[in-house]
Specification:
The chain is an alpha/beta fold and about 450 residues long. It contains 16 helices and 20 strands. Strand 5 (about 100-110), helix 4 (about 115-130) and strand 6 (about 130-145) form a beta-alpha-beta unit. It starts with a helix and ends in a 7-residue tail after the last helix.
């Protein structure tokens, strides 16, 4: 058990570091031609792309949800959206000058399984017609247990998908009522069984701690039920309460949320149960069975992290298609328009749909590497040339972390201690020059708390 006082001390707003610099530091209205040029150059030097496709529609609104989604029961929206994605793909294909090699593909949302299996087939065939699929490809998708059918699972399997991630969140009926997500455990068991029988090699469950009306008793039951179904991976997310951007979160009373110390106990309880039942802590909210590729990559030091979270492939190019999707190359980031209306307007007039982005400096690339090292490998070495900057901006926080036993920092080498693994986000933040240079950012509450 981790000391509650230590958990409380580090429970401050910090980013998840799926990019560095983080999105709030990017700029509006970037030079699109510059982005295209960098994309082309970085693509030529890469060994293939990771593709993310954002499918934003959901049939009903889960009140806790912080994702970019559009609630509708009208399925005729599928066609226009697929057409727009395929147009966007054509625009990028022109920048790559050949059939791009796809190493990794993830369908996220929203709810990808909102789309019919036939429409998913149309979308993906349109993408694959313009691509070469790498023999060691990793294809995955997010499935909502309530609307993932055997046909979805079979269709996507036939298209090369071998990993599925189900949003579970919580099995307790009272929690499900208040988050507006009634999802019978029987349904979860059913879709998991079907995925396995079809041949999916990795099933992930998303769980959230800190939801309204969750208690130690209810989360213990949810986790025991989860462990009994043996998902290969578990993402155990801290509920991010950001009602200023996610309006659904205003639909429940903040008094229904667990207090900060109760939330920490929910986390402790969950983590202890996972570790006692054969799961390994991969880092930043993720647990995995030792048989899963994510665990194997982590012990081999081959883990990578991008906007899709932890991955086993370390492609230099992530291309995000669809509303709000984020792309990243070695030297730049870009994010698409966040409303479907703006996304359609841009794509249908023949333009990329980029609304904001960032061109990296040499310093960004260096410090981004230290953050990636800490989050994926638990250690990093700072070259002599960066020690002045580290001493000026990072050392106060590094000293603090060392005094609390979370890291050792000797002879320019930082090593995360076993205790420190619980505070990976905080340790990464020591190398976030934007945060360290303006500690005042803390006051702005741009991010949710670390735990
Ligand atoms: C983009 S959602 C897609 C999952 C799919 N639509 C479903 O609900 O089954 C991916 C995951 O983000 C997590 N998530 C969404 N809102 C969150 C929040 N406010 N705090 C923490 N995690 C959140 C949930 O665990 C969810 O399964
Ligand atoms: S959690 Fe999933 S299904 Fe629920 S609103 Fe968010 S994206 Fe849609």
């Amino acid at each position: 058990m981790i000391d509650i006082a230590l958990l409380e001390k580090y429970n401050v707003p910090v980013p998840r570091y799926t990019s560095y610099p983080t999105v709030p530091n990017w700029q509006e209205n970037i030079d699109i031609q510059q982005w295209k040029d960098i994309f082309s150059i970085d693509y030529k030097a890469s060994k293939g792309i990771s593709l993310y496709i954002h499918l934003p529609f959901c049939e009903s609104m889960c009140t806790y949800c912080g994702c970019n989604k559009k609630i509708t029961t009208n399925h005729s929206v599928e066609d226009d959206y697929i057409n727009a994605i395929l147009k966007e793909w054509q625009l990028y294909a022109q920048l790559m000058n050949e059939k791009p090699v796809i190493r990794e593909l993830h369908l996220g949302g929203g709810t990808p399984t909102f789309f019919s299996p036939a429409n998913l087939e149309r979308l993906l065939s349109g993408i694959f017609d313009q691509a070469t699929i790498h023999p060691d490809h990793e294809f995955s998708f997010e499935g909502h247990p309530n609307n993932t059918t055997r046909e979805h699972l079979q269709q996507l399997y036939d298209l090369g998908f071998r990993r599925v991630s189900f949003g579970i969140q919580d099995n307790d009926p009272e929690v499900q009522r208040i988050i507006n997500r009634i999802q019978p455990l029987e349904q979860v068991k059913y879709v998991t069984g079907v995925a396995r029988s079809i041949g999916y090699k990795s099933v992930n469950y998303d769980l959230i701690y800190g939801l309204p009306h969750q208690s130690l008793k209810s989360i213990t039951t949810t986790i025991q039920q989860t462990i009994a179904l043996k998902p290969d991976r578990i993402a155990f997310y801290s509920y991010a309460h950001v009602p200023w951007t996610s309006r659904g979160q205003r639909l429940f009373d903040e008094n229904d949320l667990p207090s900060a110390s109760e939330k920490l106990q929910l986390y402790q309880t969950g983590k202890t149960l996972f570790l006692q039942n054969g799961y390994y802590d991969i880092g930043m909210d993720h647990f995995s069975l030792p048989t899963d590729d994510l665990y194997k990559a982590s012990v081999q030091g081959k883990l990578h992290r991008n906007f899709m979270g932890y991955t086993t492939q370390s492609g230099d190019i992530l291309l995000g298609l669809g509303v709000s999707a984020i792309s990243g190359t070695k030297n730049a980031f870009a994010q698409n328009a966040k409303t479907i209306h703006n996304y359609y307007n841009l794509i249908n007039s023949g333009n990329l749909a980029i609304e904001k982005g960032y061109f990296l400096t040499k310093e960004d690339i260096q410090f981004g590497k230290y953050i990636l090292d800490v989050s994926c490998r638990g250690n990093t070495v700072i070259p002599e040339e960066d020690m002045d900057t580290v001493n000026t901006f990072c050392l106060p926080e590094l000293n603090n972390l060392e005094a609390d036993g979370l890291i050792t920092f000797r002879d320019r080498k930082l090593v995360v201690t076993p205790l420190g693994r619980n505070f990976t986000r905080n340790i990464c933040s020591a190398f976030d020059l934007y945060l360290q240079k303006t500690k005042a950012t803390k006051e702005k509450r741009l991010f949710s708390n670390a735990i």
